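anyone else get weird line breaks when pasting these?? whatever heres mine. first is seq + tokens for prot A
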Amino acid sequence: MISLKTVLLCSLWHLSGSTHLNFPSNFKFGASTSSYQIEGGWNADGKGENIWDRITHEYRGLIADNSTGDIAADSYHKWRDDVKIAKELGLDFYRFSISWVRILPSGFTNHINKAGVKYYSDLIDALLAEGIEPMITLYHWDLPVKIRDMGGWTNPLIVHWFGDYARIIFSLYADRVKTWITINEAVVMCDFGYNSGVFVPDIKETIFAPYLCNKHVLLAHAKAYRIFDKEFRPKYEGRISIANHLLWIEPSSFKDVELAELAREHMVGRYSHPIYSKKGGWPPSIEKLMLKISFEHGYKESRLPPFTEEEKKFVQGTADFYGMNFYITYLIREAKPGEDTGLWFLSGSPELNAILEHPPNVPYGFSKRIPIYPKGIRKQLAWLKKQYGDIDILITENGFSVSGVNLEDYERIQFYNQYLEQVLLSMHVDNVSITGYAAWSLIDNFEWMDGYTEKYGLYQVNFDDPERKRTPRASAYYYACVIKNHSLNDTCLEKKYLIKQSKLTLTGNDGQILENSRKLLFIVLFLRFMFNH
């Protein structure tokens, strides 16, 4: 008879081997960028003007270092270097966005810019030649100025304008591109850009604009999905979704549990429930909340514009997977009497009468707005599964910022290691269906309101060099190793390996932190194995 001790030892050996540290063979690794942040060539070869061109030229004070994306990483001319980098990393896919006005300079279909068409076509072909899947985002915040001037995302006609644009892009590239994202992080442009005014298009209208934007984004996304599904999928196949920016929100205390769930629905549910839920439409709790506070402020109808039954059906089910961008975890509590709730989702929520705070005793990267709390991504993934079932989830962005020119970015290596461990736990312990992971970002870029002060790139870009030289950071070697091994085994964290590649020096304490994290993963997986057997 085999002893319990033998069973335990054999089980532990099994779990601490490569099996549960491996990603499934069909799990895909990638990296992401966006057009305005890397391309430059702001007026090259017939490109039109977008809202970031206009704002950065006219209101320099909005950007931390008074910079623009006029040249950025110059990927409009250096795209071959980007493909080379993607190959060096061993990426399965590269997610980039199309500049609306590089293809349609006016924003409308009256004129198609052939130079812009060729630029993206050449990039797609070069990626495919290297065995890298091109993944296209149709819209990553660079709205045509002419459409902005007509109300932008608060104008219901944008649903049709976006559909026209999407149809053009599908007709040009759907024969080669098989994974599509319609719109990136709608919550940022609606709840920031059309609310607080701390983000482009800089519209300070907090009452109706964010919610009009919210509804029109969902309808525009659905319009693009329906066009693809009817006109292009039958011939070219492929899959399509939207990429949502998710904050994990935890209660500050037991009495804040219901508030935290309401905040999740307000933050995530408004952009997810209409698409992924079985009933469609707005989350019922948010409909109720918005009607209540609208009446309390003297409005005769809800500030949250209702969906018609036809619109509910039009939006519902318009995603083949869930695209998830993840960076931040917050704690939430009820505001004290007279306490300023500040800006949603930076410091609080006026609608919820709530305060958002960072978790205590957590590290930060260069950005002090983004606390590093790896468990948050696992909790968010579990919440999505609970809310919307077993839909496939693709992590379309996750990243860590540094400053300056330091190539020895050990903190970023630790970040990726810890967050990827949580992804593995989500898959193996929580049974969440996660199909891929994209690091933000492939290269340093123009980081919106922060300009070039923050560096997210696996590869450094020298913005003082006219050639915009790209140089791998230590994290690039680490990520390439993870991709090659398809695993979080210790090979990718060995000191000699990284010193050889990048002259990186790890401290003993750093190594101990990683070892403790790894042991925790083994223990959790071991317990799961025992309970399941």
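and prot B, same format (seq, then tokens)
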Amino acid sequence: METTEKGRSLSPAQSAALFDLLSHHNVYSEIRDFRIPGSLKHYGPPFSVEKEKPSTSPALQGLVSKFLLNLPGLKDVPEEFWKVQLHDIIEGLEAANLSESYDKGVVGTRKTVATAISALIEYPVRGTSGGFSKVQDPDHDYDLSKAEDLSRAFRNLMDAVIYGSALDDLAQKTAETDKLAEHEPLIQAAHEFLLVNIASFMHYALILSPKGQYLLKLVANVNRLVPYVVIRQTLKIGNVATMISAMMKVVLAKMSVSTITNWMGLTSGEDQGMNLMQQIISTVLHWDIRDLDSRASKIESDKNSSLSKDQLRGLKEYADKSRDEQEEIRRQSQQNSISIVISILASSSIPTDLSESTHTVALEYLYVQLSIRDRKQLIQVLCHSTPDHITTTIRVAVSAYEPVIRNIHKAVDLSDTVYDFEAFLGDMLKMSRVQDESSIPTVGDFIALLKKHQYSCHKFIHQVCKNGKEITGWYLDWAKQAASHFRRNTDRSDAKVRDAGDLTEPLNDLFSKLSSEQQKKILPVLDQQIKYIDEMHASSHKRLEMVLSTPPSKNPTIAKIVSSSANSRASSRSSSPAPNEKGTQTPRIVSSGPSSEPGPGAYLSRWKDLLDNTPITPLSPSGKVESASGKEVVKGSTKDAAGETMLEIPDGKTGAEKVRERVTGEGSKAGKPDARVVVEAMGQDFRALLAARGLYW
């Protein structure tokens, strides 16, 4: 490391660590900005554009411009699709002022999904900003049972896609065969690597994540309302135009009392009916609202409760307060080290003398009221807004995608494809629903599930490549263009040298402009981050080795699901009653033992880092701000809308702690550096750097 009068310069590894830290925090910060109305005002294409004015969300805007706006079909949508329909939907969700995890005392579903998305997309953000270094690997032999070979194959495939002709070769071979075994060893090994990582993500999201079983319940509720039989029959129509018209009627047809009275001439008002997708959204959310209302009523009618009517009213009214009022109450809670419940009551001059047990009930009541309002707001924005942008968006998108649909309809049996998807989803739901401690699926079980159904995907892609030369050409051109964004522009592009790629020099320039005192504080953080990244990837590699050497679980129910033929048909239902009948509640179980071990993927550590940094209100009347990884917070997060604990956390390690331990060592929490000093000193400048480099309008 050199020292000059102007300050220090970063080593290549320190530049990479700085890039990693700043991109990790910036991507999630940009996602968080969508909570606030007006986030699209200076977003840039495809929304509001001011000439030569950089985007305020450069990382996300860059991904949209590079990978979505030129996507076949989507590139042909009219300007109003983005600037009117999607713009108004996003603004409606922002204006809804949906609740914060801090106020609920648990990690919310939206928080879980948002952090997962952020942890995944930060990789293409770094890849397109810094570039992918070239790999020179003469060894083309791969053993599918060795973690090192699978990782190396994926790296080599990325290199061949970005700098070589792998995409052309893959498309040509896929048109010839639908059998994975007939592809070259590189493709087989990279395919295995991707499959294992997808299984690891599914396992973590659905099993180890506190909200996993609730997310699974939502998917199951949506799935039972989808009219698969009608959809499959409609897709069998030979004439493409007739098929598209029929599908549009299935998906977009609206029915309500006002629809009928308008048709009869009895009324002439606005039709308030909902299309199929809106009906499903509304129905599923109303099931939750019903359960939440029941919980609220029990608390309100509890004669043994110490909560007064004024206290209940104050907590209920908080849900409808303005964003600014809620922010101030939240700030007072954090500043005075009191819970959000006490802060709310104090702001309304309501007595705040609550015992621990009464405070727990009050926090639950606040959670219920916030959850009810969230769901009502989502229904209003997505299902009852005027004009109906959801219906218009679907209609416009289908019109733009008509050439794509025509080509796919000619190349593939879409009815069969929908059946394959239904079968996969059904098996996933059956396997992932935890019945008892012995039925907790492992990463190996998810691998077996994916391998059972992988041929359906292979068959679909093969038929498209073989029978749809035109559409294959469209998407092949798009894929090549997408891959080109990962190429490095710097002369030196060596995978053996870890740096920030094309951003190495710009980041050094930003660092050199800091004061000497700031630099001295940041350098130790970067050195610690280098070690943390090494440990994180080494941990992921060890977990990959463990998964490859561990067979699936021996639970007979799971074994039957993953071993049965993928072509065995399951009954399709167009609708089902709300899941409130006896026998449909998920049993309480204790997650322990080897089945709860996480799989490979450094993104799991990044995901948990974002969740761990989520502030949660003190769970007692007074105290410090809680961490989202705390056992009591995690335990509360496992409950569904009815208040049933879907996955009970024992006194052992939580999923977050298991991932953390495998990165930092058994029992250690010192591996992940505190990046606040880096983000505070360079976060805004880094976003400005990305914005300036991404400006093309």
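btw re prot B: The chain has two domains: 3-236+390-694, 275-383. The beta strands are 3-4, 7-8, 615-616, 626-627.
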